[in-house]
Specification:
The chain is mostly helical. It is built from three helices and no strands.
Length: 62
Amino acid sequence: MSTAKEEVEALLDKLPDNCSLEDIQYHLYVLEKVRNGLAAADTQGTLTQDEAEERLGRWLTK
């Protein structure tokens, strides 16, 4: 597993040279949210497609 510094370096390498600090902050925010989501999926489990559709069906109209 890579360190946080290595992940940031990899992210910066992927961004264009003319990106703003706001662009960098946004990408770091997204990276952290994805990492948190994957960790939650590992500890709390995930839903099947049918379970997700059933739960969302309560709020969505056809």
